[in-house]
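Dear colleague,

Following up on yesterday's call, I've attached the two folding results inline so they're easy to grep. Please treat them as preliminary; we haven't cross-checked anything against experimental data yet. The first protein's sequence and structure tokens come first.
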Amino acid sequence: MLNSLSQSNLQRFRYLFAGIVMHALAIVSAANAATIGVSLPLGGKNAVLSEQFLIGANLAMKKYGHDHDLMVVDDGCDPELGQLAAQDLIEKHIKIAVGYLCNEPAIIAANMLRSSGVPILIAGARSIRLIKDREREEWNIWRMSPGDDDPALAAAEQLSILWRDKPFAIIDDGTIYGRTFSDVMRAKMEELGAKPAYVDNFRTAQSTQAGLVRRLQRSGVDAAYIAATEVEDIVTIAKNTKELGIPLELASGEALMVLPWLLDADQIEPGVMAIAQPLSANNHDAELLLSGLESQSVDPGATAFAGYASIQIAISVLSKTPEETTYNLQNKQFDTVIGTIRFTNNGKNAINRYVLHRWDGEAFRPLNNTPELEPETQ
């Protein structure tokens, strides 16, 4: 009888102890839980990009964020909606904010979250102002996305080596983007001792660019960089060089990366180059994300990878206070689905991920001999 009672009491004690432990673990988990704010333009022309970002973010949360949750707000890529979105994040007491595909909502959030010390991890906005004004405005922002000048600087550094022994031209389409890109690229190349032999511009959206191609031929250059916003212009120039039998090595920017999906892609000679970021790193997280996107019938766009990487970084830096979280952002190096990310003291991604890709007739492949860029240290 006593043994029976002892066994019964022991069993009750075990259940009680297990309940106390589970309750304590739940309290600890709740204490460690944090809300990550996600600010994106959920409607309009950017809705597809935001959807991709959220798919990537949610896949990362499944792997890394079991104890945390996301609060998604619509900044509309608009100043007024951006202010409302930032206020919602403040009221939710988020521990870190990610997203921000557009510049204006990022700046508004930086101003509104400044007093709380909550850090902002920018995954899409590229404005140089975000970094240039950061210290003066006391913004706690960390831009993992490239800056507006990153592709031009990378193109300059890599082509100054590749075209060291040949005369080359830099031409632009006359747009603000084209002129700015060509100015930054030319200045950097001249700094590196590689001055273009010819500089020109062209009128965009023309059915032919034969006149430009003949001017390039007369200038005596062997290669040309095309700073243009529209892939159609770049393709027209490439087709004209082939039709006129003028051997020019051509390079351009990210706009050209859609070439595999164009109907006249087969008319472009192999060898054309584009400066662009690789979609992902070669790691397990990339495989996991690609599998997740495939299971949802989603094309593997760069924004999905940015969403995944944002959550990887956010989870790894979260701490008890904004100051500790900020310290982690400034002092850690992050191995993410898109590669290594490390921030400079002024909040800029220290690693310029842009590399030259060459068209092989079917797809763009990274050049094996692309020189590696030195990370920034300031």
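Below is the second protein, in the same order (sequence, then structure):
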Amino acid sequence: MSDKDDFSFSISKPSLLNLVSFVFTISTLLILLTTVSSNSWMTASDDGDDYLFGLSELEESEKYTSFSRDYDSREWIMFDGEEADSAGTVALIFLWIAILAVISSLVLLCLNNFGDYRSNYAMTVAFIGGGLAIIGAIVWWIMFPEVNELEEDGLGLGSAFYLTIIAGLLSVGSGFSLLKSPETDDPIWMPVRRTFSEMKNSDQGNLDLISLGLVLGAVLVLFVSMFTTSWMTGSEDDAGFGFGLYGVEYSFEEFTFTGDYSDPDAGEEVGDAMSAGTTGAIFLWIAALVAIASLVLMCLNNIGVYTSKYGMIAAFASGGLAILGTIIWLIMFSTPSFFDEIDLSPGISFYLAIIGGLSCIGAGACNLMSDRKQRV
């Protein structure tokens, strides 16, 4: 077994600039993945009604409900739907190419810093990705049709537009960081590679890596399940229904309606879905936070900074809480009277939460096995 306490990493100028580039690239990717699906590219507000223009649809939102329609769904009175749809399509092309470029930059950066493929392509692709994101946002702004009826309601560019510009600038900043980073003889992240190479040379190290991957995957899965409306789903003719922890969604062809359980007028329509959702959300939030704590503790344990079994214990606890919360939600949930004639069944979000819980338990089991191998 390798001595984990031998791990060291000095922050030199090249290391710092590459770390900045890495952080900028990750931030760019997260922002762009958020803005491509956001409906806050252009916004307006009229007596409590918010109009949110996205790249492919318009969302009319009130305090507890929202209603969205695709731009090409029908004739629009306020603006030219075909022009809005064309502007969104062009922007999506630019942004998805930018996202692919940023992902490529991230991969090339890691390969270069680990010494697997030495090149300057990460810098070039970072500039390209940032430029495409900025150009795509500006082109969308130019192509989007005028909406004269909402000018008095504060119609203006929204957060998604500005976030896309910021993401483009971050990617360009990532390129500049790599441009200013001095050349080094040895790969910059070689100390990290040596440590994990030593870990992979033993069964114990492989189990540690598997447990970290399982916990990380569980955190992502739990967050996805919490904020989607596919916990209980059903369909009737061309209409689809979905219940989440916080609200209900109804979709018909290109139209989508969403409503929050907290709406005072929705008491009879949602039945026990609100109390079930609140209980499930409490369990899953605690499970997700405990899983994050488990991930941190496992990392500290693996590099010898803080040796303990708390990461393993937290993984088991997180998995148990996630599964328990999901089962309690299913027991508490009762089909609202308004949907009695619709055949509802647990959806993908329900099963994702179960999978997240099982992943945490699997991570705890791997960590337990790793600990036993260490004693041998």
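For the second protein, one point worth flagging: The chain has ten helices and ten strands.

Best wishes,
A.L.
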